[in-house]
Write the C-alpha cells for this entry.
Amino acid sequence: MISDWQKDTETLPPGKRLDDAIVSTADLQLRRPVATDGPAITALVARCAPLDRNSAYCNLLQCTHFADSCIVAERDGAIVGWVSGHRPPSDPQDFFVWQVAVAREGRSKRLASSMIKALLARPAQRGATHLITTVTDDNQASWALFHGLARDWDVPLERSPLFESSAHFAGAHATEYQARIGPFDHGKFQAEQG
Ligand SMILES: CC(C)(COP(=O)(O)OP(=O)(O)OC[C@H]1O[C@@H](n2cnc3c(N)ncnc32)[C@H](O)[C@@H]1OP(=O)(O)O)[C@@H](O)C(=O)NCCC(=O)NCCS
C-alpha cells in the first residue's frame, strides 16, 4: 500500500549533486509541507541569515493554504531545506519564490535548485511561464542560484528594482530587486522530473 507520505514525496531531478554523506538521494525527501512542519521551518529560516523571520503563523499558512507552492527537504526527520512561494492572484502566469532556506551543512549541493525545479514541475504550477523573486544587491548566493536556474533553463533573467529602500522600507531595509526568469515550458519541467 502506498502511504500518503510516499505519494507526497517528489523525485529529485537528474543532474543532482546530492551524493555525499550530508545529503543523499537515498535519505533526502522533497515533499509538500504539512502544518506540523511549521516550527521546524520557522527555526530553519531563523538560522538562514539574511532571511527575514516571518511569524510562526505565516509559516503555518504557507504549510496549509499554500502547500502546493511550498516545499521542504527532509533528512532523517529534520527539515534541511525550504522554499516558499505562491502564484500572485494578479499575475497567475508568474510563480513567486518568497524564501529559499538551506541548512548550512546542506549547502552547495544543488538542494536549493532541486527544490525550486521540483516545485515548478508540480501540476499546480501548470500555466506558469515565469519565476519571479526579489533579492537584495549583496546576496551573492541568491543571485548565483537564480542566474544558475536561468542558465539551466536557457532563458533570460531580467533584473529591476521593485521595493526601494527609502520609498518602501523607510530606510530600514536594502532595496529588493526583482528577478524575472522565463519564459519557460512547464511541460518540459514535468518531463524532466519523470
Ligand atoms: C542561497 C541558498 C538558498 C543556496 O542554497 P544551495 O542549496 O547552497 O544552492 P545550490 O547548491 O542549489 O546552488 C545554486 C547555484 O548557486 C551557487 N551558489 C550557492 N551558494 C553560493 C555562494 N555562497 N556564493 C556564490 N555562489 C553560490 C552554486 O555554485 C550554484 O551555481 P551553479 O548553478 O553555477 O553551479 C543558501 O545559501 C541559503 O540558504 N542562504 C541563506 C538564505 C538566503 O540567502 N536565501 C536566499 C534568499 S531568498
